[in-house]
Amino acid sequence: MRAGLRAVLSSDDTITVVGEAADGHEAVARARELGPDVVLMDVRMPHRDGIAATAELSEAAPATRVLILTTFEDDDYVFGALAAGASGFLLKRTRPERLIEAVHTIAAGDSLLSPSVTRTVIDRMAAAEPPDPAATRRLRTLTARERDVLDLVARGLSNAEIAAALFVEESTVKTHMKRLLGKLGLRDRVQAVIVAYETGLAKPGAARRASSTGPARPSRDTGAA
C-alpha cells in the first residue's frame, strides 16, 4: 500500500515523499524528524493506531497536517480523526488524481472531508456535547459577516457556494475565513465547523436541511471585517 501511495504521489512533480512509516509509533517519530507539510495516516496500524498517532502528532508538530486514509467509512473513525486534530479524511479507494488533489488541499491550509460524512459526524458531535462557554465568548469577537461565513461553513458549503449565497467574490470568503480562524485561534475549516456546533451557532441537522433546501439568506454586512 505504501509503495502504491509513493508511486502515485511521486507522479506529481510538486510533491516530494520524504519518508514512510510502518506503524503509528514510527509515524510520529519520522514526522518529528522530517517535518513534512502533510502526513498520510492510516487508521489501523500495529503498536499505535492512526487516531492516537494523529493526536500525538497534532501536539508535537502542529505545523504538520494529517490526512487520514482508511478503508472504513465509519462514523467512529471520522469522529476520532476529527477529535484528534486531523485536517482531512479520505477513503483508500479514492482515485489517484483525487488523492493528489487532497494533498495539495491539505498543504494549502484547507480541510478535506466528504460533505455527507462531515454532516453525519458533526451532527453526532454536537448532539453529544453542550455548548462550550469559552468558545461562545470567542465567537463574540466575530463580525456579523464572519458569523455568516462560519454558519455556512458548518452547513457544509464550499467557498464557492458561500460566495454565491452572500453575493460576494470567492476571494472575499477566503479573507473572511482567514480572519475568523485567526480570531478564534483555529487551525483550519474542520475546527471551525466544530466550534460552530459547540457554540450553538449551528444546530444538529442544519447541514442536511441546507443541502436540500439551500442556505438561508444571511444578514448583510454591518461593519468592516
TrEMBL record:
Pfam family, one: GerE
Renumbered residue ranges of the record's region Disordered: 203-225
Residues recorded with modification 4-aspartylphosphate: 42
SUPFAM superfamilies: C-terminal effector domain of the bipartite response regulators, CheY-like
HTH luxR-type domain ranges (all copies): 135-200
Native source organism of the sequence: Paractinoplanes aksuensis
Gene3D superfamilies membership: 3.40.50.2300
Occurrences of domain Response regulatory (ranges): 1-107
UniProtKB keywords: DNA-binding, Phosphoprotein, Transcription, Transcription regulation
Entry-linked CDD domains: LuxR_C_like, REC_NarL-like
Protein name per its UniProtKB record: Response regulator transcription factor
